[in-house]
Every structure is written in C-alpha cells, then in structure tokens.
Design brief:
Blueprint lengths: L1 H23 L1 H13 L2 H25 L3 H16 L2 H5 L2 H19 L3 H17 L8 H20 L6 H18 L6 H19 L3 H21 L1
C-alpha cells in the first residue's frame, strides 16, 4: 500500500507539471491558434457532428453519478431533440443509428425509475457505441482514439458506482484503453504528459488488482482531466 501511495503522489506531481506547461507555453498556444485557423470548414463540421452525438450521453453519465435528476432530464431533452432533428441518423452509420433507438428507449426506462447507477452504465455504453458508429470517424481517427480514453474514465466510474463492482470488467477496460494510448503516445511531444499516462495505467491496474475503490475512483477522474490536456497536446 505504501508503494501504491507513492505511485499516486508521483502521478499527481507529473500531471501538475504537464498541466502547467500546457498553460504556460506561449508557443503551444500559438500553434493551437494556427492549427485552428488552418482547419478547413469541413473538419470543424466533423468535430461538431461528433460532439453532437456524444455530449448528451457524456453529460448524462456525469449527472447520473451525481444523482442529479434535473440534469439527467435536461440531457434526455437534448437526446430527444437530436432525434427529432435527425442528428444521429445523419452522423452515424445506418446500422448504428437504427440500433441506437432501442438503447435510448432502455435508457428512458431507467430514467423513469431513477435508477442512477444503471443510467450511468447505459449512458456510457451508448457513448462508446456512438464513438464506434460515427460515420466520419475515419476522418478524425486521432480524436476518436482520444474519445475512447474519455470512455474509459466514465465507464470505470460507472462500474465503481454499482452495488457489486465488476473488477474483471474494469481491468479489461483498462487493458483495452492502454492499447489505444500506446497508439497515441508517439504523437505526444510532452514527456511529462506521456509519463503521466503511463503511470496512470499502472496505477489503475494496481487499483483494480487490489480492488481499491477509492484509488481507482481518483485515477478514473484523473483520466478525464488528462484527456482534456491530451486534446490540446496533439
């Protein structure tokens, strides 16, 4: 346990340094501005379309974990509005958009029962399903991989919120997500950010192996924060 605490402290320290560098490096900010300015309009639309099919379920997961009924209903309204406007149909594969409807109906049933823990599980599953079935995913493969790391954090938090924690499932999610990270890692120039993610996965695996709910929860939340940093670093 002592070594575990040392590892966690190390992750936090490296994470802090990486965040400070991302905020404090003017060249990084300028490069982001240039990158954004040179993006063609179609690229921006693709990112926007991805956000439209993911954000309502991301928000719903957060609200479910907080047991925030009003927030969940607000997210559900966004989902229903997106359905009415054909957002999912336009931006997902034909088979994916068709299969999505029964998943949303299942989610509605859980919402009517205020079953927060299962709402969190199902909304994260839909989040991943939409990532995998985004029709223009091949145009933004790097962002798609980053979204899978986002999914890891949300899904682990949702699983930790269950009465009976499925540690085997958590470990499988960690292993699958680590493979995604190994694909992204060569694109990251910030050595501190690389180290942070490497230690993060080591810590998550240890916490799952030792069934340490508290540490696993901390690291899953750290993953969500790291993803935001990673999006600005690639």
């Amino acid at each position: 346990m002592k070594n575990f605490k040392i590892l966690l402290i190390g992750i936090i320290m490296i994470f802090t340094v990486s965040c400070q560098q991302q905020k404090g490096d003017p060249n990084q900010s300028k490069s982001n501005v240039v990158k954004n300015d040179t993006k063609v309009k179609s690229d921006k639309i693709v990112f926007s379309n991805l956000d439209m099919i993911l954000s309502p379920f991301e928000d719903m997961t957060e609200f479910a974990l907080d047991k925030n009924e009003n927030g969940i209903l607000k997210s559900l309204n966004k989902v229903e509005d997106a359905i009415a406007k054909g957002v999912f149909e336009k931006n997902m594969t034909p088979e994916g958009s068709k299969s999505l409807i029964p998943k949303i109906e299942k989610l509605k049933g859980l919402i009517s029962q205020n079953n927060y823990s299962q709402i969190a599980i199902v909304s994260t599953e839909i989040f991943q399903f939409n990532i995998n079935n985004f029709s223009d995913g091949n145009l933004i493969e790097t962002q798609i991989r980053i979204e899978h790391l986002d999914y890891m954090g949300f899904k682990i938090l949702a699983l930790l919120d269950q009465d009976k924690i499925d540690w085997k499932n958590i470990q499988q999610i960690i292993d699958d997500s680590q493979k995604v990270w190994l694909t992204l890692s060569p694109m990251v120039k910030d050595s501190n950010l690389k180290d942070t993610f490497d230690y993060l996965f080591e810590g998550l695996s240890l916490s799952a192996d030792q069934k340490d709910t508290k540490i696993c929860n901390i690291l899953a939340n750290m993953d969500l924060a790291l993803v935001d940093v990673l999006e600005n670093a690639i």
